[in-house]
Specification:
By secondary structure, the protein is α+β, with helices and mostly antiparallel strands. The protein is 50% helix and 7% strand. The protein is built from 23 helices and twelve strands. A hairpin with an 8-residue loop joins strand 2 and strand 3. Helix 6 runs antiparallel to helix 7, helix 6 runs parallel beside helix 10 and helix 14 crosses helix 17. The longest helix is centred in the first third of the chain and has 37 residues.
Length: 651
């Protein structure tokens, strides 16, 4: 027996969905002459009996069946290629401004995340070429280092991208990942929907499009390729639902474990969201039809246990490093753990969309990289209308419950309307639970986005299956409704600004004459959350030199096991130099500050200090550093201070 919808993957006697449920899987289409009519569809009038054909005419008719099947398969493949090509063109449109100059352009706000990802991509090169330890590094935040398993080091993305990173640099790898993340996620959902949920190509394409190019995905595209690379999620969801009716739960559980393991090295938070969404969806189905549990619990239980054992074995050591290894932390920084969506954000278009407005959205999201709702009024109303229209279908009710549940959680600890706090949110009771204390609540809106994409696919499928007197009118109205809902949130090219190039002193390898393997190159200002240019310098050399500081998550004060914060141990001199770079004001220095700076340089094992001549407020910075360690000299396009005699511990 074949089931077409995810809810139908449960084994059990109850009927699955509305009478318009699509027929058997199109990958193996039945002959139209023998296929049964769709349930609930009006019966076709029987054709008059044909006179029996001569025996010799039967042979060509039988040989024509495989030919027709091959032609249908070829047509379907061309259809998939066409849809994939459209998704790729859309992703190139979104990233077009970065492609013009990958190394010289970056998102207009919060430039730290792209630099961090590029650093991780360069680390993957060292893992592959030099056998470097993958889960921890001292190449930044030296000498304390950084726990990469606790910082989403994207090994499952970075290692396959090693050839691109070696040939073109981590900046190009970054934009490739963003482009493929958007297009690949849309294509993965399209394939899963067309194979298991709907039969109408347009329905699958609409659902896949929204899952890949929703406002939330566009918001993260400028900064977080690990979040938008969701191409494994449709298959994880599918394998979870397969377990509810599996005849081979051990095998299916093992397949699920491999997918889970791969996703864990892309983004663990998105994996957790997927597990929570599957759990809530299954509970919503069983709450409506408890009889399904009798047939589903055994294969589901065996499969989940198999998955947990195998994935647990594969991930045991990486997770040990993440939670108990050096520089491990517990819980997110206070700066992000209370991020939540404003209720009004669900009815406004996202900033990187056709109808979006950054200024209008400024108080509706924690920042522009976390616009995890922003569906617009038209799509929000359409989604509600779809649920009302198809409310008799089990899957629609379960999807609606899932979407609403996570939309409420995404509001965070304080529920607000247009930046005015209304009540305490339910997230306040969950935020301290294990694992959930490492979740950014606003990102639960990503689950709601996927739910809306599935509802759109179902609505198009049901509208296409209607058989009114004027089918063309219904289809035109459906297309018009989609345009009305989706046009305001159509993706636009991501906004970019120019950024300083990597200094010639770095790219020409002039630094190698100064920096030894156990020494650091100290960019001025010292790398931090607000200044990540030094991380890009190191990434451009595939991390051939170490740097102090940087942008990452680490335990407070460098004590393993403490709550997380952005950056390493506080550096008094580092903060002072950052303030000079921002304000241009030169501070008054005394001998105590000079001794403190010398102590920090020794702690970092600094070889040279490097200040680009095109750095903002370069003259105040140069004068400040000279007062601390003495005169420097200009070499190519940087000022250099050789401090090896000051930091050499043998002297």
């Amino acid at each position: 027996m074949s089931y077409r919808t995810p809810a139908g993957l449960f084994a059990g006697p109850p009927a699955l969905a509305a009478p318009t449920t699509a027929p058997a899987d199109p990958e193996a289409p039945a002959d139209p002459a023998t296929a049964p009519a769709a349930p609930g569809a009006p019966a076709e009038p029987e054709a008059p009996a044909e006179p029996e054909a001569p025996a010799e005419s039967a042979v060509p008719a039988e040989s024509a069946v495989p030919t027709r099947a091959r032609w249908r398969r070829w047509t379907r493949r061309r259809q998939h290629l066409a849809v994939g090509g459209l998704f790729l063109l859309a992703a190139l449109w979104v990233t077009s401004r970065i492609w013009l100059d990958p190394s010289g352009r970056v998102a207009s706000l919060y430039t730290g995340d792209p630099a961090q990802v590029q650093f991780f991509l360069a680390h993957s090169v060292r893992v592959v070429l030099h056998g470097e330890y993958p889960f921890y590094t001292e190449q930044f935040n030296y000498p304390d280092g950084v726990n990469l398993m606790a910082n989403t080091a994207v090994l499952a993305l970075g290692i396959p991208m090693v050839p691109v990173t070696l040939l073109f640099g981590p900046a190009v790898s970054f934009v490739v990942l963003v482009t493929l993340g958007l297009a690949g996620t849309a294509m993965a959902w399209y394939l899963m929907l067309s194979r298991h949920l709907v039969r109408t190509p347009l329905a699958a394409a609409v659902g896949g499009w929204f899952c890949g190019f929703s406002p939330a995905m566009l918001s993260h595209a400028s900064w977080h390729p690990n979040i938008i690379s969701q191409f494994l999620l449709p298959f994880i969801v599918w394998r979870v639902l397969v377990l509810t009716r599996s005849g081979k739960p051990v095998r299916d559980g093992a397949l699920l474990a491999l997918l889970v393991t791969a996703q864990a090295f892309i983004n663990e938070e998105i994996l957790l969201f997927t597990a929570l969404a599957c759990g809530v969806f299954l509970l919503a189905v069983l709450a409506q039809e408890p009889a399904r549990w009798r047939a589903a619990w055994r294969p589901l239980g065996v499969g989940v246990v198999t998955c947990a054992l195998l994935a647990g074995a594969l991930l045991a050591y990486p997770l040990y490093v993440q939670f108990a290894g050096p520089m491990a932390y517990h819980g997110l920084s206070d700066a992000v753990k209370d991020y939540g969506n404003d209720i009004a954000a669900f009815f406004a278009p996202g900033s990187p969309t056709l109808g979006g407005n950054q200024r209008a959205n400024i108080n509706l999201a924690p920042n522009y990289s976390e616009e995890n709702a922003f569906f617009g009024w038209s799509l929000s109303m359409l989604a509600i209308g779809i649920v009302v229209w198809l409310r008799r279908e089990l899957i629609v009710r379960a999807l609606a419950a899932t979407g609403v549940f996570f939309a409420v959680l995404s509001l965070g600890e304080r529920v607000s309307w247009w930046d005015r706090e209304l009540i305490t949110g339910p997230w306040q009771w969950l935020v301290h639970l294990p694992l959930l204390d490492a979740v950014v609540p606003t990102r639960f809106g990503l689950i709601t986005s996927v739910v809306i994409g599935l509802l759109l696919a179902l609505a198009v499928e049901r509208a296409w299956a209607l058989r009114p007197a004027d089918r063309r009118t219904v289809r035109v109205l459906t297309a018009a409704g989609l345009a009305f809902a989706l046009l305001p949130i159509a993706p636009m090219p991501l906004r970019m600004v120019s950024r300083p190039p990597v200094p010639d002193f770095i790219t020409a390898d002039r630094w190698r004459a100064y920096v030894g393997p156990d020494q650091t190159l100290v960019p001025i200002p010292v790398p931090s959350m607000g200044n990540t240019h030094g991380m890009r310098w190191a990434a451009a050399t595939n991390l051939d030199f170490k740097i102090p500081g940087g942008y990452f998550l680490a335990p407070r004060n460098g004590n393993t096991g403490d709550a997380g914060r952005f950056g390493g141990r506080p550096s008094g001199v580092g903060q002072m130099l950052e303030e000079v770079a921002t304000t241009g004001r030169t501070p008054k220095l005394d001998d105590r500050q000079r001794r403190r700076f010398a102590d920090e340089l020794r702690h970092w094992r600094a070889a040279i200090l490097v200040l680009p001549v095109r750095q903002q407020n370069v003259e105040p910075l140069r004068r400040t550093v000279e007062e601390l360690v003495g005169p420097g000299r200009q070499e190519l396009d940087v000022w250099v201070w050789d401090v090896r005699t000051l930091t050499d511990r043998s002297v």
